[in-house]
Automatic annotation (TrEMBL):
With LigD forms a non-homologous end joining (NHEJ) DNA repair enzyme, which repairs dsDNA breaks with reduced fidelity. Binds linear dsDNA with 5'- and 3'- overhangs but not closed circular dsDNA nor ssDNA. Recruits and stimulates the ligase activity of LigD. InterPro entries: DNA_bd_Ku70/Ku80, Prok_Ku, SPOC-like_C_dom_sf. Residues 336-365, 372-382 have a biased composition (Low complexity). Residues 52-179 form the Ku domain. It comes from the Bacteria. This is Non-homologous end joining protein Ku. Keywords: DNA damage, DNA recombination, DNA repair, DNA-binding. Belongs to the prokaryotic Ku family. Residues 278-288 have a biased composition (Gly residues). NCBIfam families: Ku_bact. Homodimer. Interacts with LigD. It comes from Pseudarthrobacter quantipunctorum. Residues 260-388 are annotated as: Disordered.
Length: 388
């Protein structure tokens, strides 16, 4: 056991140094709350109702409220009260043990001698044994001034804290004031029942059945493997870090949404520039190997555009002309619209013909050469190379 308090019993002019130990303990199995979905721990936070912040225990003070007014009491102010700092168990009376109301008993503590010689301790114990009385004492423990009874149990002084008289409620039940008649036969039968159940009290003969069955349930679940790794049930403690993670998540989602919206417009613009660049690249590229992929992308993009617009396949050439007109206008500042349409039409026809079969490629090459020269001369002023 670990001592929870040190002090001295003031027995007249005799001072008895003692250590105080809790004499009782709770045998209940300790359970905690978890989330039924994942077994995560449920914890309670000390949150301020004014600023909504989670408050550390060191920043918490006590207060008293009455008639709409609150008085805050700091730890230093509470410690300054003389009675709270007293480590003296003062004997004030010796009374017969039968005069103590059992309802007033609160908690029991063992007292151990805290000096090299236990003579004063033994002297007080003998005095209580010889007089068959209980010492009424006053002491301060855990920020409360308490009333107590000092008695003997197995040669050890036991301090039992008592409730103050105003802490014991008065029983006032009007139903018990009614006049109830009980026959002599009923009283005799009840007395016989009492005698049939009479016995000497033996605390060891009683068992907390609920705790026993609870322990059996826990052990059965452990044997069946129905358990979790304890470390996995602990999460990140709430605080500034947790709030920051939420803010970062929201910001990331917002950025992703903005990027998605902006990316859609950018992708459409990039596709238009790619189509236009593909036509110019095929005519003004550095080599034939670079011109072929550009023509393939343009050729594959045009049917998709025609289908998405709902136009029939027979009108793809007309739709392609319109796209090429826009690209030619954006790329060259002084190009004429009629020449752009004619060049785009010939170029588109050449690409479509080249994509169909290898036999038609030779025809496309001969038709593409003057067209490429015309487009390159008007749009960029660069001499076009004959594609492979």
């Amino acid at each position: 056991m670990r001592a929870i308090w040190k002090g001295a019993i003031a027995f007249g002019l005799v001072n008895v140094p003692v250590k105080v130990y809790s004499a009782t303990e709770d045998h209940d199995i300790s359970l905690h709350q978890v989330h039924n979905a994942d077994g995560g721990r449920i914890r309670y936070q000390r949150r301020c109702e004014v600023c909504s912040q989670v408050i550390d225990y060191s920043d918490i003070e006590k207060a008293f409220e009455e008639d709409g007014r609150t008085v805050v009491l700091s730890k230093d102010e509470l410690k300054a009260i003389p009675a709270e700092n007293s480590h003296e168990i003062e004997v004030v009376q010796f009374v017969p043990s039968e005069q103590l109301e059992p309802m007033m008993f609160e908690k029991s503590y063992y007292l151990e001698p805290d000096s090299k010689s236990p003579k004063a301790y033994v002297l007080l114990r003998r005095a209580l044994e010889d007089t068959d009385r209980v010492a009424i004492v006053q002491f301060a423990l855990r920020e409360k001034t308490r009333l107590g009874a000092l008695r003997i149990k197995d040669d050890v002084l036991v301090l039992q804290s008592l409730l103050w008289p105003d802490e014991v409620r008065e029983a006032n039940f009007p139903s018990l004031e009614a006049d109830v008649r009980i026959s002599a036969q009923e009283r005799d039968m009840s007395a016989a029942l009492v005698e049939s159940m009479a016995a000497d009290f033996d605390p060891a003969s009683f068992t907390d059945e609920y705790q026993v069955q609870l322990r059996q349930l826990i052990e059965a679940k452990l044997e069946q493997g129905e358990s979790l790794d304890t470390e996995e049930t602990f999460g990140v403690e709430a605080g500034e870090g947790g709030k920051g993670e939420v803010i970062d998540l929201m910001e990331a989602l917002k950025r992703s949404l903005d990027r998605k919206r902006g990316g859609g417009a950018g992708a459409a613009a990039g596709a238009s520039e790619e189509d236009a660049g593909g036509d110019s690249g095929s005519a003004a590229g550095d080599g034939g190997n670079e011109a072929k992929p550009a023509r393939k992308r343009s050729a594959s993009a045009k049917p998709a555009a025609a289908e998405s617009d709902g136009k029939p396949a027979a009108r793809r050439t007309s739709s392609a002309k319109s796209d090429d007109d826009k690209a030619g206008t954006a790329k060259s500042s002084g190009a004429k619209g009629t020449a752009g349409k004619s060049t785009g039409s010939r170029t588109t026809a050449t690409k479509s013909t080249a994509a169909k079969s290898g036999t038609a490629r030779s025809t496309a090459k001969s038709a593409e050469k003057p067209a490429a020269k015309t487009a390159a001369g008007k749009a960029t002023g660069t001499r076009a190379r004959k594609p492979a």
